[in-house]
Amino acid sequence: MFHNRARWILLAVFVFALFLRVYKLNSLPWGFYEEEVTNAYVGRFILQNGVDPYGNMFPLLYFDKFGDYPPVLPMYLSGLATFFFGANEFSARFPIALIGALTVFPVYGIAAMIFRKKEWGIFSAFLLAILPWHVVLSRTTAEGIVGLAAYVWGFHRMLVGIEERNRRKIFSACVLFFLTYFLYPSFRILVPLTFVPMAWFVSYKDQRLRKLVMVCAGSFFVLTVLISTTVWGRGRFMQTSFFQSKEVAAKVSAWSDALSQGEGSGQIFLARAFHNKVVGYSRAFAEEYLSYFSPKFLFLEGGGQYRYYNVPSQGLLYILVAPLLFLAVLPFVKQRIDARVMRFMVYLLLIAPLPAALTIDFPPHAHRAIAMIFPSVLLATYGAYTLSELVQKKTVVIGIISVLLLGEGVYFWHQYDRHSAAQQSILRNDGDREMVQYLIAHAGEYERMIAPVFDRIPIYYLYFTNNFDRNLAGKIQKELYVDGVNNVTFFKDWCPSRYVKAHAIPKNTLIVDRTGCDAPPAFRVIFSTTRRDSTAAYTMLVPR
User: Which of 127, 150, 367, 530 has the highest CB neighbour number within 10 Å of its CB?
Assistant: First the structure.
């Protein structure tokens, strides 16, 4: 009886998860971030023309935005949606939001297997559905959401294959894990590490199954090494590497010098023994890694890269998750489940921030540490399970926890909906879309328009004019620069008015400056745009 009811409840959880990820998706988050418009434009351009904007035939591995070589497959998803919903914010964001909502199904399956009850599977799915970390990233075209979905599906298939001793399911799990390599780079480190203890779950009696798991593990380690030797495989990592950072190097050097001098005159041995680069970098890396387990980061304020997570006074996880995680590690409850699985979840939680900690770009980085979501949800479920074992009425415990989580969810949504737009809005390109739409709306009034080329303004213009013309292939330069489109010229400076002479251009020319450029007296301001955080964005000028 409950089996059929569980299906309907799970379906309701999915619908709720989808609602949280698509409601007001066109305007929340506010500000159409340049990566969002780029992904949608490039994906649509390739699907429509068979070549990327640089003229390369149907790339499958990566697209080079600015020497970073991100995976191209998530771009195809955003591009595909534009065929159905048009060139707008909703299309760019919808596929990732949908995949984020669909992830509740494998999470349900894994939890139901671990706890041997569908109620706990539903609880895990519900927790993921409302989790701020997952909700916000699902709405921001974060390709890590797609990678996480494939990773969790692969994990589910692996557990089912091991339990059923089904080699086909294990092989399909390996295929899903392989797919993550081309969805989000962090999984190129996480997948082989995930497989390190995997063979532990396979019975020694089933050597053929055990060998298949070990072959997959070895293959992933080799694949990670091979990709790391390619230009496209190490492009973004080299740009943000912890060990390549001049900031970290300066910090370690200053720390070593200060403490070495503190040892006193002539204490060369002590200075070299205790204050060398190995010690300095080790401690700096530990500080970086442990920042991902900071209670403030996880439960109170989020932080890191505000382009991805900018909800004021709201952590990535709900505060209630903190005691549930604590309960998950307490040993006083009689185990009714395989404790190895939960120890595996602790292991996954510990390795999940490693790819993020190896980079230095806005730490702690909510997107790069996205894999922490999966073990956090399972461990929090285990904490709730532990609490339920201490009381007689288990359904009451689940109900109370669910109500409390919903209460926190209401607060989260209020903060996200009403206040996120005004926090660090410049980091989400707030004002760029509005400026481009002004150009489009007034294009017929001017013989020529001149605007900055930076922040991928040309891609915004092409996207919102629905211009995916194959003839643009090759004309779009590296880093997605375009010299001009129609009567719009893109200038390589934030302040074109400083360089364009009023007497040398037609009287009906519109010039766009970023605010603060101090235009020459030969021009007058006719319009300006303001961001949601009340800062000025752009000014539109014409010759006097």
Answer: 127
